[in-house]
Design brief:
The complex is a heterodimer of chains A (472) and B (430). Chain A is α+β, with helices and mostly antiparallel strands and 472 residues long. Chain A has 13 helices and 9 strands. The chains are: A alpha+beta (472), B mainly alpha (430). Chains A and B meet through helix 1, helix 3 and strand 9 of A and helix 1, helix 2, helix 3, helix 7 and helix 10 of B. Chain B: One of its GO terms (molecular function) is cyclin-dependent protein serine/threonine kinase regulator activity.
């Protein structure tokens, strides 16, 4: 986090590490910069500028000269107070139905804008959805995003999107895919908001697929023509046909919510609802209507160095909690939304995953200091995803270095999780002169427009696996 | 959400940061050149005086100043010389980037080379060849473009290919990577380049459908209005078009059938595409015109009557409307200006040009900023860390630079690599 001297505005910094990169400027950072410079929307995080640590020399047009650059390039983002996962995890906090509708509408509006601009996000999950104190939701962390075009003939990597939010086509090895991958993730988040906990917490890829099939039914040539030709279909095909149980498992949801969820969690990506169509779903146009972002409650902002003392206190609490937990496993603490029935569902077959260390009081939406289970263990979140858990801050901010998060031991030699976490980079007084490109007056309000953005550091994710980053 | 193509383009960095009028473009280049010349003169003076100081133990200021006055004045490049030299190296870059230019080139899609060329052109708006020699920048620009255009090669493979197939026998990975940061900064971290290639393809598809008399192709205001024009009418109107009156037209000599028409459209496309692959890249077209203006300009060069007809179908048929008339005239004037720029472009390796380039290259050798010659060393110094790069580092750098310089002088032609490949290219073409 830093402050822009000229305006006094608080911003978030994400450091791009250059010094240890074998291949030069990290390609993930290049992609993120390229894509974010193209997107200007109130539901997409704003990349304000790129700054470098102060260097005395300038080029012939008075711009900074790179040769005296002392090792720091930072992406400067608007500051955001929270992320969706952090908010949802606050003890005692329940989202109301109008609030969930408000967040979902903003999520879909931002995503629709990305898709219209031919950008796939490829890492939609709660911790990449940032929320400010004006109630605005913005998509962030475009480190795995890439442009697509309908005439694109090349193959894309299927090693994207955090496991729990990864759609079946990627798990079955598809290398040609489109915006539908993001919509599956949106469906998972939607169900998670209504349900109070993640709905498909797989530990590895086979288990993830199995959970999907148990909930959404097994794929066949009728509900998903061509699925048996998918590269890994034969490795993962279910031993017995399974029934689609979404409407049964989530029968306590409101009817329109269930309709929308059903259309999002459609196995066949061709048939899965688009962001545009989802925005006109009955769900958003029936009582209770989505609320105005500004009417949402303002939550206490919670960042590392604003709340150091609290964090220490929290650590102690967590230590205590952890010790207690060892003796008495406690049930999941995230609460379902108000006005909703209590959750009946405990996961199709893995109720053990519903345990987690209780989240202690105090602001902790970045999960600073949250205790971590062993790799693949009964942790609340998939390890190494955008959690940046109890690791020290500097590690978490490096872009393009190997993730330091623990990978679960599993086959085919790669971590199943897309990217990993980050947090605001250490403050750097805004001395660096930047080359920011002020976004133009580019109003995107329209039918689904939300309200204008606020300001604030976003806890933008940092770590990307360079190993995978360069794949297409 | 109602976004027009224009809205999308106006939101791009290409429009916001890299679009100029001819006069602003010229003044930026003049200013860059003047500032670079000033710095070169200062840097060379400083280096001379430090050499003098080292030689004589009493290196007082006045002595150094005296020494200066006896030294020959530094003869700096003019903006025109810089531009010519740059075009030469951009041409080399193009021949590396695609097999359509050279069989041993990288097998990249055309967007990669095109983007790399634009990176270099953008970079040299705010930097001068006197500060960074283009031969040090072009490989890096191509490498960066492989990252931004989804054609990534590891730096090891990339530099190996440059060594093995492009005649750059001494190219190292470090040399590819060293100027990368300087380059990204010169680009102001804007990596997106909008090309006219896809627009041209779209135009081809549309024109082909019109040539077939396909009524579905008529999603055009001229036809939507009255609703009377049919696919067959359009086809007949196209068949009646006069042929282009220039020697380079290589379509059918008489257009009597739909298949003739198709050939004519195809010939226009091929010629326009060739212009986009070279002339559009090596002129200032990208700075002055939008991608759609560029491809329509190229089409005007390729087949003017056909393009004018296509253009007219984009407007409501009502010829009497003054507003529409004025709009048409305004757009057409821009397209014609772009067409002229593309038509007049030529780059043939004449002996005179070779001599001129050799002269400029020699001149540049004497006015290259000594502070920036050793980019690899400078980059390594940055990596070693800020603290050590202080007083001790400077001396070290001077030493390596001096050694390198001596070595280069021993070898005779310090710019061996690029000139070799220039010669090689000349042979291929002759």
């Amino acid at each position: 986090m830093a402050r822009e001297i000229r305006t006094g505005e608080i911003v978030a910094l994400k450091k791009i590490r250059m010094d240890n990169e074998k291949e030069g400027f990290p390609i993930t950072a290049i992609r993120e910069i390229k894509i974010l410079k193209k997107l200007h929307h109130e539901n997409v995080i704003k990349l304000k500028e790129i700054v470098t640590s102060p260097g005395p020399e300038t080029d012939e047009q008075g711009n900074q000269d790179g040769n005296k650059f002392k090792g720091g390039i930072y992406m400067v983002f608007e500051y955001m107070d929270h992320d969706l996962t952090g908010l949802a995890d606050r003890p005692g906090l329940r989202f109301t139905v109008p609030q969930i509708k408000c967040y979902m509408k903003q999520l879909l509006t931002g995503l629709h804008y990305c898709h219209v601009n031919q950008v796939l996000h490829r890492d939609i999950k709660g911790s990449n959805l940032l929320i400010d104190n004006e109630g605005n939701l913005k998509l962030a962390d475009f480190g795995l995003a890439r442009s697509f075009s309908t005439d694109h003939t090349g193959n894309l990597t299927n090693r994207v999107i955090t496991l729990w939010y990864r759609p079946p086509e990627l798990l079955l090895g598809a290398t040609k895919y489109g915006p539908a991958v993001d919509m599956w993730s949106v469906g998972c988040i939607f169900a998670e908001l209504l349900n109070g906990k993640p709905i498909l917490p797989g530990k590895n890829e086979p288990e993830q697929l199995n959970k999907i099939f148990e909930l959404c039914g097994s794929p066949d040539e009728i509900n998903w023509p061509g699925c048996s030709k998918m590269p890994w279909y034969n490795n993962f095909k279910p031993s017995r046909p399974m029934k689609r149980r979404i409407r049964e498992v989530f029968r306590h949801f409101d009817r329109h919510a269930l309709d929308l969820l059903d259309s999002m969690l459609t196995l066949n990506p061709e048939k899965r609802i688009s962001a545009q169509d989802a925005l006109v779903a009955e769900y958003f146009w029936n009582d209770p209507l989505p609320c105005d972002p500004k009417s949402l409650p303002k939550y206490e902002s919670s960042h590392e160095f604003q709340t150091k003392k609290k964090r220490q206190q929290q650590r102690q609490n967590e230590e205590t909690a952890k010790r207690q937990k060892l003796q008495h496993p406690q049930p999941h603490t995230r609460l379902p939304p108000i006005q909703s029935h209590p959750p009946h569902w405990h996961g199709p077959s893995h109720p053990v995953n519903n345990t987690q260390p209780p989240v202690s009081a105090g602001p902790s939406h970045h999960q600073y200091g949250r205790p971590r289970g062993p790799p693949g263990g009964p942790n609340r979140y998939p390890p190494s995803a955008n959690q940046s858990g109890g690791y020290n801050q500097t590690r978490g901010t490096q872009v393009g270095t190997y993730s330091s998060g623990p990978y679960p031991a599993q086959g085919r030699g790669g971590p199943p999780y897309a990217g990993s976490g980050g947090m605001p980079a250490p403050g750097q007084r805004g001395a660096a002169s930047g080359y920011g490109v002020g976004p133009p007056n580019y109003s995107q309000s329209g039918q689904f427009g939300g309200s204008a953005g606020g300001r604030a550091p976003n806890p933008l994710g940092g770590n990307r696996n360079q190993q995978y980053g360069w794949q297409q | 959400m109602n976004l027009t193509e224009d809205d999308v383009y106006r939101a791009t960095t290409q429009y916001r940061l890299w679009s100029y009028s001819p006069s602003s473009l010229a003044s930026i280049r003049d200013e860059t050149n003047a500032n670079a010349a000033k710095r070169v003169v200062e840097a060379i003076r400083r280096h001379r005086s430090s050499t003098a100081t080292n030689a004589s133990s009493n290196g007082a200021e006045p002595a150094a100043a005296d020494h200066d006055s006896t030294e020959p004045a530094v003869d700096c490049l003019t903006p025109a010389e810089s531009a010519l030299l740059l075009t030469h190296y951009l041409h080399i870059l193009l021949t590396w980037s695609s097999t359509r230019h050279s069989p041993r080139a990288f097998p990249f899609p055309s967007a990669v080379g095109a983007t790399a060329v634009q990176y270099v052109r953008r970079f040299y708006l705010s930097n001068s060849p006197m500060t960074y020699h283009p031969k040090a920048i072009i490989a890096t620009a191509l490498f960066l473009a492989t990252k931004t255009e989804c054609a990534f090669n590891s730096v090891a493979d990339f530099s190996r290919k440059l060594r093995d197939d492009m005649g750059l026998k001494k190219m190292t990975e470090q040399e590819v990577l060293a100027p990368e940061f300087v380059l990204t900064q010169g680009l102001r971290f804007t990596f997106d380049v909008r090309h006219p290639f896809r627009g041209l393809r779209g135009g081809l598809i549309e024109l082909s459908a019109m040539a077939q008399g396909d009524s579905d192709a008529l999603l055009l205001p001229a036809f939507a209005n009255g609703g009377e024009t049919t696919g067959a009418d359009v086809q007949n109107e196209m068949l009646a078009l006069p042929l282009p009156q220039d020697d380079e037209y290589d379509g059918p000599s008489a257009v009597k059938s739909a298949s003739d028409l198709d050939k004519r459209v195809g010939a226009a496309f091929t010629r326009a595409d060739a212009l986009l692959q070279e002339a559009a890249l090596l002129t200032d077209a990208y700075f002055l015109y939008t991608p759609s203006q560029i491809w329509l300009g190229a089409m005007l060069v390729a087949d003017e009557p056909l393009t004018l007809y296509y253009f007219s179908t984009k407007f409501p048929a009502a010829e009497s409307d003054e507003v529409i008339k004025a709009k048409k005239a305004k757009i057409l004037a821009v397209l014609q200006a772009c067409a002229t720029m593309l038509r007049e472009w030529e780059w043939k390796p004449t002996p005179e040009r070779k001599e001129e380039l050799k002269r400029i290259d020699k001149k540049l050798y004497k006015c290259l900023n000594p502070d920036k010659k050793d980019l690899v060393g400078l980059n390594a110094a940055v990596k070693r860390g800020a603290a050590e790069a202080g007083a001790s580092g400077d001396g070290e750098e001077d030493n390596t630079r001096a050694k390198k310089k001596r070595k280069l002088e021993d070898e005779g032609d310090p710019f061996g690599g690029p000139l070799e490949s220039k010669n090689g290219e000349g042979k291929k073409e002759s």
